[in-house]
Amino acid sequence: MGKIVIKEEEFSFLRGNPRFFGILKELIKDGGVVYLVGGSVRDLFLGRSIKDIDIEVHKLSLNDLQKVLELSGEVKLVGKQFGVLRVFGLDIDWSIPRKDSKGRKPKVSFDPDMTIEEACRRRDLTINAMMIDLSFLLDKKFQGEVEVIDPFYGLQDLKDEKLRAVDEKLFLDDPLRFYRVMQFVGRFEMQPDEELTEICKKMDLKEVAKERIYEELQKLFLKSKRPSLGIRWLKDIGRLKEIMPQVYDLIEVPQNPQFHREGDVFEHTMQALDAAATLDKYENEHEKLMIMFVVLCHDFGKPQTVDENLRTIGHEKAGVEIAKKFMKRFCDDVELIKSVKKLVRYHPAPVDFIDQGASLKAYKRLANKLAPEVTLRQLTLVALCDVSGRNAEGHVPLKMEEDLFDKSMKSIEEASLEHGPEKPVLLGRHLLGIVKEGPEMGEILAKAYEIQIEEDIKDAEELKKRVLNGSD
Q1: Domain count of the fold of the chain
Q2: Other CB atoms closer than 10 Å to residue 128's CB: what's the count?
C-alpha cells in the first residue's frame, strides 16, 4: 500500500465522462466500493493511453451491479458468467470479485465481500494486481494524492521492469497465462523473474485453444514496439520449437554475409518483425497484423533451399506452404492465410524490380498475380521491413529505407496500381453471343488481358478483334 501523486489530467479518461460519473455516484450510494483494476492501473503508471478500462465493484451482487448500470443504458452481457458487464456506448468493463476453477471451461463463483488481497491474488502478474479506489473522484477537495492498493508489490516490479507471478498455483491453473507472459515481454519490454521463468518452462499448454493463443499473438504484434522479444523469450526458455516450429527451424540457418551480415535467418526475421511493428505506413490495424504475420513467415523457405554457397534460390516459393501450415496453427481466417501466402510468394519482387529497372508492364503483371487478396503497396511494405532487418551491430532493425518505398510507389502510382491491378477492358459481356460461356471464354478473356497489359491497348473492340482472330 502507498500513496502516489496523480495529475488531474491522468484521470481525464474517466473525469470527462458524465455517464460514468452518474454510475459511480449511484454505486457508491448503494454501498458499493468501486475500484480501477488490472491493466488500467498498470498503464496509468506507465503513462500509456488507457483504452481498456476495467472496473471491479465490491460489496454489491452481480444483479445489483446490473440494475445500477441499466439506469444509464442498455447493458451488454459480454461475459455475465464471468461477472463482466458493459453499458452500451460506454467503453468500460464492469465486474465483481470472482474465483475461477481450473480448466478451459472454468466454473466461476462470485464473492462481493472478497478481501482486497484475495481479489488481487487471482490476477496473473503483480503488475496487473493493483487497484485504485475511485471514490476520490467525487471529492471536490481532491489534492492529487491517491492510494494505490498494491498487496503484491506490482508498482516496484514496474519500476524494476520485472514480470512476476502473483501466485504460482493459480498461475499454473490457467495455461493461457503463459502466452500472456510472452506478449507482455514484447509489449512492455520486461523480463520474467527466475521463478516465473521456471514456471513457464514446465507449464502444460495442451489445453489452450488456438483461438486464445491467436488473441495473444494479436496483442503482441499490434501493441509492441519489439514483438521479437516475446519470440526470443520462447527460444530462451526452450519452448519455441513446440509453439512455433517453423520459426525455430530458422535458427542457425546461415545467410550470405554479402547481403546479410546480421547473422542467421532467425536473427534477420526478428529484426524485420520489429521493423514491421514500428512502421508508420499502415492504413489500419488489420493491414498491420497481416504484414506482421507475413514478415514473420517470409523466409520460412530458406532452411529447405540454402545451398553450399549460401544461396536460397526459390525460397519464396518453398515458403508458401510452410507459411500456410504455420498460420493454421493459430487461426482459421481463410482470407488472412491467402494474403500471407501471396505476399510470402512474391516478397523479393519490389527490391528485384528496382534493381532491374523493371517496366510498368512488369508491375502490372505482378499486381494481377497478387489480386484480389493483396496489393503492390502492401508487398512494398513487406520489402521495406525485410531490408531493415539487417543490422550487424545489434538486434534493433536498421532505419527504414524510405528511398526503396518512394521508388516502388512512384512506379506503382505511375501505373495506377495503388489499389489493385489494372482493370480488364474486354469483359464477358463483350463476347456474349459470340463465345460460349465457360472455360473457353475464360481463356479468351485471359489472353485479351495479357495483350492489354503487354501492348497497352485500352480499346475493347480492338482487343476483341485480336483475340477472336487468333492474333496477338
Answers
A1: 4
A2: 21
CA distance 319 to 433: 44
Q: Are 412 and 363 within 8 A, CB to CB?
A: yes
- Distance from first CA to last CA of the chain, Å, rounded? 82
Distances in Å between the alpha carbon of 77 and those of 94, 95, 331?
10, 11, 25
CB 58, CB 32: distance < 8 Å: yes
- Contact indicator for 377, 418 with CB cutoff of 8 Å: yes
CA angle 284, 209, 202 (to 5 degrees): 110
C-alpha span between 116 and 283 (Å, rounded): 43
Max avg pLDDT among 100-109, 251-260, 435-444: 251-260
Query: Is there a contact between 270 and 231 (Cβ–Cβ < 8 Å)?
Result: yes
415 close to 364: Cβ distance less than 8 angstroms: yes
Do 37 and 97 form a contact (C-beta atoms < 8 A)? no
pLDDT digits (tens, 9 = 90+) for 137-156: 887 777 667 888 999 999 99
pLDDT exceeds 70 at position 101: no
- Beta-carbon contacts of residue 124 (< 8 Å; ≥ 6 apart): 165, 166, 171, 174, 177, 180, 181
What separation in angstroms does the CA of 410 have from each of 279, 301, 415? 19, 30, 9
364 lies in which domain range?
Answer: 244-414
Residues 309 and 271 in one domain: yes
Q: How confident is the model at residue 103 (pLDDT cuts 50, 70, 90)?
A: low
Enter the pTM of the model. Answer: 0.91
Q: For residues 50 and 115, state if they share a domain.
A: yes
Say yes or no: 97 and 208 in one domain: no
Q: Is the pLDDT of residue 409 over 60?
A: yes
Are 37 and 97 within one domain?
yes
255 phi and psi angles, rounded to 5 deg:
-130, 155
The top-scoring range by mean pLDDT among 1-15, 86-100, 256-270 is: 256-270
Q: What is the pLDDT of residue 6?
A: 62
Same-domain check for residues 311 and 380: yes
Confidence of residue 3 (pLDDT cuts 50, 70, 90): low
Calpha distance 320→304 (Å, rounded): 12
CB atoms within 10 A of CB 360: 16
Cα-based angle 193, 197, 199 (whole degrees, multiple of 5): 120
- Whole-number Å distance between alpha carbons of 436 and 95: 64
CB-based contact 255:310 (threshold 8 Å): yes
